[in-house]
Amino acid sequence: MRLALTFFYLIGCIQSVSAQLDWKQPTVYTYNGKEAEILYRYGDVDNMNMGWSPGYNPFSGNNTLPHIFPFEPAPSDPAGTDRIMVCSGYKAGNRNTDGYTAVTERPVNNPVPLFLKWDKKDVLVKKVVMQLFVDDFQPTVFGKNYQVFFDGERIPYLEYVINSLSQSGPIGKLITIDILPQYLSFFEDGELSLIIDDPYTDSGDGFAIDFVQLLINPKNTSTSLVKGKVLHQQTRKPIAGALVTASNGAQVYTGKDGQFRLGGMTPGLAVISAVKTGFRQSFVNTDVNAKSASTVIIFELYPFANEDAGNMQRILKEKGQLDLYGIRFDANSDKIRPESASLLNELLTLLQQNPTLKLEFIGHTDADGDEAANLSLSTKRAEAVLAWLKNKNAPVKNLVARGYGESKPIASNKTAEGKELNRRVEIKVLSQ
Questions:
Q1: For residue 50, what are the domain limits?
Q2: Best exposed site among 54, 65, 297, 352 by fewest CB in 10 Å?
Q3: Is residue 345 part of a domain?
């Protein structure tokens, strides 16, 4: 019996050592392994070349301890990993900066693309999970508006996740993101260029990426649990039927008491959202690990209120873009509904006060119906907003309209709430 126990102990040690050795590799590729049909990791698992605390497992869901900085990539580190990056929009002299920005300088700290490349074999891509071990993202502290690009194309869904992060200080954390179906095509050719940047806002928020891991057609189902409650921000009453969604794709609706139990969670930093018709979407970050089930997350949903011109101007100045959920349309139509008048009048005021502002009005739809028809509909809806403004004698010579159809979702189209979030009009600053 003792020999048998010793044997299994040794096997466990060998497996542990094997995993540690695997972490040292700059890239790892496994076909038809236990975790996924294809597992591909870009970057070594070494906490920015500083190593892990004794007993720490980066896949456990726990934070790293705060570490020293600055740090520089080793010659073997793939491009974009294990290095401090400061967004391209940062302007020297801005006092709103973090330590990473203060101790580095251009061009060394410029954002660098991560070029992922793997053997795609003949795998039909049905599902992709992206895991990123990220360090010191603080967009909510420094007013950043991060943009995420796949092969040069912006991915708004991931931007919502990244811009919800709040890593106080130089600590690392694994986040797991379920890629929405509309973006799976980026993974079909076995190559992906990934870059995270904020070219617009001028404050300095330095960040780093230790590694990126792709699970293409994953095989394992996570079983961790997160509990919480969704409340009305003003009345503090529970909200039933709110949709709660985690960045790894897990979803559940709240019960009559406003409570939820979200299973299938992946260890790491989870970005979880709650939304219900008539309320603004709310985000919460939480650590998912063995102790998660003992923690209760509280969401406070704000009743939807139309933006005023002053608030619009502030957001456009800080972030360069704004979603206008108060503009409503009839189903399958570009006819603006009457309840949109209040928001449109505030938009009119904004343009009258800023006649030189150059804006792009961008229409989006959900995934119901024909793709080509949705593209046409989204363009017509953006044009309908411009037509309304023109009829009110707004300065429109610097305004343009564009539609993306269903191609730029920010939520899953599998639920009514997700579809509503995807049906939106966005305004984007083209030039100051």
A1: 25-218
A2: 54
A3: yes
Angle between helices 371-391 and 341-353 (to 10 degrees): 60
What is d(CA 176, CA 158) in angstroms, rounded to the nearest whole number? 11
* Coarse DSSP helix, strand, coil percentages of the chain, rounded to the nearest 5 percent: 25, 30, 45
- Checking 230-239 for CB contacts under 8 A at 24+ apart, the result is 230/254, 230/258, 230/260, 230/274, 230/276, 230/299, 230/301, 231/258, 231/298, 231/299, 231/300, 231/301, 232/300, 232/301, 232/303, 233/300, 233/301, 233/302, 233/303, 234/303, 239/276, 239/279, 239/301
pLDDT in tens, 214-263: 999 999 767 788 899 999 998 999 999 999 988 888 889 999 999 999 88
Q: What is the pLDDT of residues 112-121, one digit of tens each?
A: 999 999 999 9
Distance CA 378, CA 260 (A): 34
CATH number at residue 403: 3.30.1330.60
143: left (phi over 0), alpha (psi -120 to 50) or beta: left
Number of structural domains (the chain) is: 3
Residue pair 413/366 in contact by the 8 Å Cβ criterion: yes
